Amino acid sequence: MAYVDWEFAKTTGRALVPAGPVVSPAEARAEVEAIRAAARGARQPVAETARMQTPPEAPEALVVDRATWIGVNVDSMAALLEPAVEHIVGSRGVTPGPAAQALGGKVTGAEAGAMLGFMATKVLGQYDIAPQGTPALLLVAPNIMAVARDLGVDPADFRRWVCMHEETHRVQFTATPWLRDHLVDQARTLAVDLAPDQERLQEIASRVTERLPDLFAEGSTGITELFVTPEQREQLARLTAVMSLLEGHADVVMDDVGPAHIPSVEDIRRKFTQRRKGAGAPDRLLRRLLGLEAKMRQYRDGAEFVRGVQAEVGVDGFNAVWTSPDTLPQPREIADPKAWVRRVHA
Question: How much is the pTM?
Fold first, then answer.
């Protein structure tokens, strides 16, 4: 029996998430086709700008609604976290009975579903690396439509802009076959290491109240901060450095491609950045608790790293970053691109 009821997580997330903008069936079909066309149109410009060789054939992007996004991400989360769940259960030395397992699975499933239900309204797209499945490029149609409306930007340009970013993620993983397994292995190892034993759980529970203001403070890395030891913080920093690279590189490519293919790219970038900063107080607090504000910093820090390296050694020199795990940036190098250049191009 599963210790996390992943199907209940899907049910919970889908029950909590709003459907999105109200549109007619014809408008919905038109939006889906327009997003698919934008995804196809992003391939050549991104390949030319990133200068990364990818397999000639790639599956078409999947244009999904919020409920489907939740289902895909629950499956990926399950594949990624099951080793950690098994570690937690094994460390207790006692196997709960069927009734306790069922109840605990429902509780943890509901928690995961509620978190994904919140996130499903925020994500425009992603490259799902699918730890035990087939990787796929996902584009969330209701969110792309809603954000374009909220920002008051050209819908066609906004679709293209989003697709440039997400297509860059597809290129990163398909041009660098080892990257997916490396990330999955690192994330699973960290998840197992972070899984607290009973004594650690009690310590964390006793600290939640006193640390709650810190978790909601600006710059917080989220609730994960309660779980990490200094050694684990270093592991997390290494993984964060890679994620900063991926997000920053995608942002740089989407903006470099923009002027030739997206007439209003500067207007979109300005308004989108303002939107990130201008979220309401409850939304900002929840983002901080979940560590989503830290993800926003990854975009900025990663983009500064990429541009800093490219200023030193050009795009082709930067692409040495994809050679092996050893050439990925170390945490300190994200803030010091020249240090990465010295180490890799010495």
Answer: 0.82
Per-chain mean pLDDT for the chain: 82
The per-residue b/e assignment along 300-324, b for 16 or more CB within 10 angstroms, e otherwise, is ebbbbbbbbbbeebebeebbebbee
What's the first-to-final CA gap in the chain, in angstroms? 53
Tokens of 178: 């080892």
In a domain, 138, yes or no: yes
What the block records as the tokens of 121 is 């309204």
Decide: 110 and 7 in contact? Cβ < 8 Å. Answer: no
Which of 264, 41, 70, 320 is CA-nearest to residue 166? 41
Total domains in the fold of the chain = 1
Give dist(CA 143, CA 20) in Å, integer: 7
For residue 151, tell me if it sits in a domain. Answer: yes
For 305-329, write each residue's pLDDT tens digit.
999 999 999 999 999 999 999 999 9
